[in-house]
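Budget justification aside, the reviewers requested a transparent look at the raw inputs and outputs of the sequence design task funded under Objective 1. We therefore reproduce one unedited record. The lines immediately below are the structure tokens for a 172-residue chain.
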């Protein structure tokens, strides 16, 4: 009978950066290869990795410097191709622009300027109230600072809001 039965199997991982083999536990070995096998398979499925099976041990997840790297389906946003009409286009041309139109932004700014102007007419202390609200003060503290009762303060706010909501329904 052989005495080799009691010897434990050695697990090694190749470190590409230092070009050396390192002995590790079975748990570390399995976790390492489980992670990098999944990583490599995902990149192979996307056409980005052409690593041959006998070189899998070289995979360290650094695809940018790997000798087996392929461009795959990844193209530059500036890559020009022809569409079905024969026109030259890039992938950048097909990205939808969700930014609002400048005319809409300017219209909204004009309306807001009118709204704030009207609020200033209805309630001259509105700017000060807004600044105090940003500081996190309560209605009672704000009313005390501007020198009126809290109920008067709330009444003026409600009246201004009601007037503005009638005049500017899109904002309320």
């Amino acid at each position: 009978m052989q005495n080799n039965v009691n010897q434990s199997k050695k697990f090694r991982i190749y470190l590409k950066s230092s070009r050396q083999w390192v002995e590790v536990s079975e748990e570390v070995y399995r976790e390492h290869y489980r992670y990098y096998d999944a990583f490599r398979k995902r990149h192979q499925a996307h056409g980005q990795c052409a690593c041959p099976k006998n070189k899998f041990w070289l995979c360290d997840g650094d695809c940018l410097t790997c000798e087996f790297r392929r461009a795959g389906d990844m193209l530059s946003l500036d890559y020009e191709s022809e569409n079905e009409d024969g026109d030259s286009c890039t992938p950048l041309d097909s990205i939808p622009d969700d930014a609002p139109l400048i005319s809409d932004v300017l219209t909204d700014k004009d309306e807001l300027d009118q709204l704030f102007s009207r609020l200033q007419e209805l309630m001259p202390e509105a700017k000060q109230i807004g600044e105090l609200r940003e500081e996190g003060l309560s209605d009672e503290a704000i009313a005390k600072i501007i020198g009126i009762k809290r109920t008067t303060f709330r009444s003026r706010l409600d009246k201004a809001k009601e007037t503005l909501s009638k005049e500017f329904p899109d904002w309320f």
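The chain has five helices and four strands. Strands lie at 11-15, 20-24, 81-82, 88-89. Computational costs for records of this kind are itemized in the attached budget.
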